[in-house]
């Protein structure tokens, strides 16, 4: 059994989830700007999906960070350091700063 690099395993999934969150956020802002264009159920569904998606991204990034820290302590080689060092902080920054009012 081979051990897959946690950075590359999670990176693609997180990027897809961020794209989904951006689409949900766009729809959510449209619904809030013109509430008469949607039902209350659609607004609630979009809000909940966006919140859940962002929490999931945050948890995935926290898990990845913990795994990377453990592997670092064990001196296990992983990831392309340049990519990893920019990807993780960039995603966390995007999730926390772009959507802070939804996560809390």
UniProtKB/TrEMBL annotation:
Keywords: Golgi apparatus, Membrane, Protein transport, Transmembrane, Transmembrane helix, Transport. It is found in: Golgi apparatus, trans-Golgi network membrane. Residues 5-71 form the Syntaxin 6/10/61 N-terminal domain. GO terms for cellular component: Golgi apparatus; membrane. It is a single-pass type IV membrane protein. InterPro entries: SNARE (IPR010989), Syntaxin-6/10/61_N (IPR015260). GO terms for biological process: Golgi vesicle transport; protein transport. It comes from the Eukaryota. Belongs to the syntaxin family. This is Syntaxin 6. It comes from Myotis myotis. The lineage of its organism: Eukaryota, Metazoa, Chordata, Craniata, Vertebrata.
């Amino acid at each position: 059994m081979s051990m897959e690099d946690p950075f590359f395993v999670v990176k693609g999934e997180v990027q897809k989830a961020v794209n989904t969150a951006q689409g949900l956020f766009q729809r959510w802002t449209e619904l809030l700007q013109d509430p008469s264009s949607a039902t209350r159920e659609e607004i609630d569904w979009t809000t909940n999906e966006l919140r859940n998606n962002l929490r999931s991204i945050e948890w995935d990034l926290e898990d990845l960070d913990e795994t990377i820290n453990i592997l670092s302590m064990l001196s296990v080689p992983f990831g392309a350091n340049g990519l990893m060092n920019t990807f993780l902080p960039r995603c966390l920054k995007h999730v926390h700063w772009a959507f802070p009012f939804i996560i809390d």
